[in-house]
Amino acid sequence: MAGRAERRQAARVVKFGLVVPALLAAACAPLSEQQAGTSSGQARSGALFVAGKFGNTLAKVDLGSGEEVARVESCANPHELTTSPDDEYVALACYGGTSVDIFRTRDLSKVKSIELGENARPHGIVWHDNGSLYSTAEGRKSVFVIRKPLGETETFEYATGKDGSHMLAVSPDAMHAWTTDLGSGTVTRVDLVARRSPLSASVGDEPEGIALAPDGETLWVSARGSDMAYALDPQSLKKIKDIPVGDFPLRIQLRPQGDYAVTSDLADGSLSVIDTATGAKVRSIAVSSREEAEAKTQVTILFSPDGERIYVAETMANTIAEIDFRSGEVLRRLPGDGGGDGIAIIE
């Protein structure tokens, strides 16, 4: 099973054109109905990990069978998840508490609990290719760097100075991190090396979703109160492009190939697909109807490592929708019991 570093390198090969152009064009072209059906019917391998924020659980779903194969008690109100570069561990942000907890992906046995301090409320979390963990600490208005999370752990705290530092992105070279600050309505750049003062900018109304392009050149933000997505310069935080999307875009994710950004539009039950080259919304994917949207409450979205599937946490419905990216077809609904919110994947 390839780890994340190998998968990212494969994505970089595609992004920088080191493949036969005709093959790349074919890969990006829309599929015919017959081809889409073939793609949709292919068996998947690997596992999906689900944080049950109401049930205080961590679960593992086998992607081959579509069945939940393990579930353990976790911590209070767990939210976001991230897997280690070698896919052997999953780290859980304990939003109702003060720790980041680490479990084995094999059997969900707990390995370690890393304390971040009083009122930490960790939320956004990234396990970087360099081996370190990065987490927001919303209650402390800060970002933590956790070095050697599986060994003699060291933690370093960097202030954002903003209310509600919620979601997180980290640069490929680990020199900078960015947060969306719900309470302050800002995006903040944190210098993790020189420790210069953080830089913040107002971006729309209630910015929450955040994702950095694979090459680190563009920062993507979704503002749920504005029904907008924004492309930003990561260093200056100046807007490059404003893109109207669906209703209440809670999250934004980049396809591993970097060619599309997708927002999770909670209030209308859809996904908005943005061409990152043009900065234009090119289509919508209906995950549920507007009438069903409030009852299902879709939150977190996640691409499969190959970019062919999207997984959408429907928190109030206790399901995770699996969607074929090219056709937009909802293939199945996987278990997401306990208010599944944060999700992570290994394949």
From TrEMBL:
Signal peptide: none annotated. InterPro entries: Haem_d1_sf, Host-pathogen_enzymatic-act, WD40/YVTN_repeat-like_dom_sf. This is Beta-propeller fold lactonase family protein. It comes from Qipengyuania vulgaris.
